[in-house]
Amino acid sequence: VEIKLLPFTKKIVSDLSEFAEKKGVIINLDIPENAVLSVDEKMLHAILKNLIDNAIKYNRENGTVTVSYRELKNEVEISVCDTGIGIPRSHIPFIFERFYRVDRSRSRKLGGTGLGLSIVKLAVEKLNGEVEVESEEGKGTCFRIYLPKR
Ligand code: ATP
Ligand code: MG
User: Fold this and answer.
1) Residue 2, exposed/middle/buried by CB under 10 A (0-12, 13-18, 19+)?
2) pTM of the predicted model, to two decimals?
């Protein structure tokens, strides 16, 4: 089945809106109206929900989250970028491991289990895609997902 990415993402954002509003985080969607994907809906949901959840959770007060979509030659790119605390370079190799968290005391306060990104990684692999991270401490983080076109 074809998933219409814009309404699909809007629904996830609206489920997280209370959380975002508490922090004053604004979520921008840079997704064309006609973007469609034929991938497993549960997998795509797990990916977007966990990435947007993190982008709110590790953001600063009144920060922003931007979810964008673009088509490349052989694949599509979905990115989730935030204006948050960033991830120290030395931790990046480990963040997709189950239960791994950068700052244990802060993470305890924020809640969660440290499973989100391990689920993202598994789901992306199921879809034969790839995930990339780019982060700058104190500035923000972008997660980019690449999925094959067909
Ligand atoms: P859960 O997702 O189970 O609620 P979690 O968010 O701590 O818990 P993950 O989503 O797997 O777990 O993320 C692992 C760790 O990577 C987080 O604890 C956090 O330290 C770091 N991290 C993930 N996303 C971001 C982000 N957008 N900005 C900064 N740090 C992040
Ligand atoms: Mg998480």
Assistant:
1) exposed
2) 0.97
